[in-house]
Amino acid sequence: MVSRIRIDQNKALFVQSLIGNKDNPEGVFETYADIVAFAAAVGKKYDCRLPLEHISQEPSPISLDVFISRGYDLLMDILAITTMEDVQCLAGEGQKKDEQRIIIFEEYANGGLSYLQEQLVGAIDYQERILLLLNQERYNNNPVHEFDLSRFL
Questions:
Q1: What's the pLDDT score for residue 140?
Q2: 15-56 pLDDT, tens per residue?
Q3: Which 8-state DSSP code applies to residue 89?
Q4: What is the DSSP letter of 85?
Q5: pTM of the predicted protein model
Q6: Which one, 2, 50, 148, 151, has the greatest CB density within 10 A?
Q7: Are 144 and 45 in contact, with CB atoms under 8 Å apart?
């Protein structure tokens, strides 16, 4: 059985709006896998993990092989390790290990999509708003200290 990453039905239209193509030149991401991986990272960053309620048929569940080929399996592993707080969760082989890792990944992606949906409400250009969010985060983590002129007095 091939493992697949699923998207919640209530996020399906939002996810589709983020894909860039000839019909949607304002789209930000190249593939659904890119969107889901980005959303999973956002979900982890903001500790937003939500279980999936209803599985979307369009976009359809994405093969795990797509994520592996794009290098996102490492993200999946990191999310599993940090969530379960045990590196042994990746030990061994088997369907149960993969299922657990996939569920954690899907839940963080679902939480991240909820967060992004909130942040992008009313935005005309998703790309610009996402860049602003990333830039804001970048500078929040590295505060710029004002130069103290008082030492020259």
A1: 76
A2: 999 998 777 777 789 999 999 999 999 999 999 999 999 999
A3: G
A4: T
A5: 0.84
A6: 50
A7: no
Contact 62, 33 (CB under 8 A): yes
Residue 64 has pLDDT above 80, yes or no: yes
Q: Return all residues near 36 (Cβ < 8 A) that are at least 6 apart.
A: 5, 7, 15, 62, 67, 105, 109
Extract the tokens encoding 37: 């991986």
Interatomic CA distance for residues 86 and 129, integer angstroms: 36
Both tokens of residue 65? 């092989």
Q: Helices 32-45 and 73-84 meet at what angle, rounded to 10? A: 20
The C-alpha R_g of the chain, in whole angstroms, comes to 18
From the list 106, 101, 133, 135, the residue with the least C-alpha distance to 37 is 106
Are 41 and 103 within 8 A, CB to CB? no
| Rounded CA separation 115/46 (Å) | 8
3-state secondary structure of 98: helix
Reported as a single tens digit per residue, the pLDDT across 96-126 is 677 888 999 999 999 999 999 999 988 888 8
- What's at 95, amino acid-wise? Q
